[in-house]
Write a sequence for this structure.
């Protein structure tokens, strides 16, 4: 490979983060969320690193089938449930558990000719206004499911999702929790509510199952990096050119950044074609030769420019860390006006992925 732009995935970091979840929620079972290709880290890598989880959660049946193909025999929960009735026999054949969030899914189960039993999680909308039944409909949904031949009362569980758990000053999380518990107080079945932010910030929400996602990959669900989490992805490229620029020189498209002095500018072989965000502003940090440096000018499809003024003896081929062990992806996301989730999931196939055990 000639273009040395790659992402290193640290499987041990993912495993270590799983243990961090255990410390936060020692009395709950752990449903490891590996949707969207393991948050961009690779579904297979993530699954192998998370073998200590009690179950896995994915968005859709294709992700679940890939886990089974990889040899995963643990419980697998489809967080969006089935997307059409044709998927119901596949659920049964593979032993998948299914979130039920809409009446059309209930009706599809009632009409199904499948005779085996499917374990389900009734999704309750306690304030997110995305997926789920309103609390006043839950008993009706349960009764409809138990009347069908595909569901038994012992296989009905309940979950909700928090909208603002990453804001520790917002009482909405506790309001959602109270509404959820009130709604299911007369029901049997296992309960799940806590995502990564709730696991780390709201102990009362842990219940029977927690659903860690982003924290498994070493990223804080809050705005700032948390030292108890180990970043699992390091995105790296290299300097391919060094320009001696004069005061007043304009850097990159549109001349968006102007050199304040005579200075060295490094050109790095990564851009939005690799998933590095085009909206990264000048001043976004990178790491070169043991020191922080900054992006200057606009991100191009294949390249970025960085200020080498404070880097001793920079050379062609020097590695540049875009995020990872030395530059927190949370910090990069803040400079880009986005969240770390988007950056991790957005790394493209042009980037080579390497695994560090």
């Amino acid at each position: 490979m000639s273009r040395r732009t790659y992402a290193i995935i640290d499987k041990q970091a993912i495993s270590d983060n799983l243990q961090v979840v255990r410390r936060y929620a020692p009395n709950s079972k752990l449903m490891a969320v590996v949707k969207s290709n393991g948050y961009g880290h690779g579904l297979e890598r993530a699954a192998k690193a998370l073998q200590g989880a009690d179950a896995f959660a994915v968005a859709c049946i294709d992700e679940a089938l890939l886990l089974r193909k990889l040899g995963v025999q643990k419980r697998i929960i489809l967080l969006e449930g089935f997307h059409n009735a044709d998927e119901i026999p596949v659920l049964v054949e593979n032993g998948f558990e299914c979130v039920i969030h809409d009446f059309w899914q209930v009706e599809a189960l009632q009409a199904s000719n499948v005779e085996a039993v499917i374990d389900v999680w009734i999704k309750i909308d306690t304030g997110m206004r995305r997926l789920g039944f309103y609390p006043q409909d839950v008993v009706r949904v349960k009764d409809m499911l138990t009347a069908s031949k595909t569901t038994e009362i012992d296989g009905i569980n309940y979950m909700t999702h928090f909208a603002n758990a990453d804001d520790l000053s917002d009482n909405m999380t506790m309001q959602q929790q109270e509404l959820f518990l009130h709604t299911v107080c007369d029901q049997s079945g296992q309960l799940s509510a806590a995502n990564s932010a709730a696991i780390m910030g709201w102990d009362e929400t842990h219940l029977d199952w927690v659903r860690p996602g982003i924290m498994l990959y070493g990223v804080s669900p809050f705005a700032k990096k948390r030292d108890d989490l180990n970043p699992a992805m390091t995105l790296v490229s290299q300097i391919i050119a060094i320009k001696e620029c004069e005061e007043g020189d304009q850097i990159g498209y549109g001349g968006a950044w102007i050199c304040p002095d005579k200075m060295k500018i490094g050109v790095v072989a990564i851009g939005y074609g690799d998933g590095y965000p085009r909206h990264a502003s000048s001043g976004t940090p990178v790491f070169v030769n043991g020191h922080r440096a900054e992006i200057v000018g606009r991100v191009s499809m294949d390249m970025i420019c960085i200020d080498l003024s404070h880097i001793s003896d920079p050379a062609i081929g020097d590695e540049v860390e875009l995020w990872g062990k030395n530059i927190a992806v949370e910090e990069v996301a803040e400079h880009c006006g986005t969240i770390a989730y988007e950056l991790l999931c957005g790394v493209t196939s042009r980037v080579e992925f390497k695994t560090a055990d």
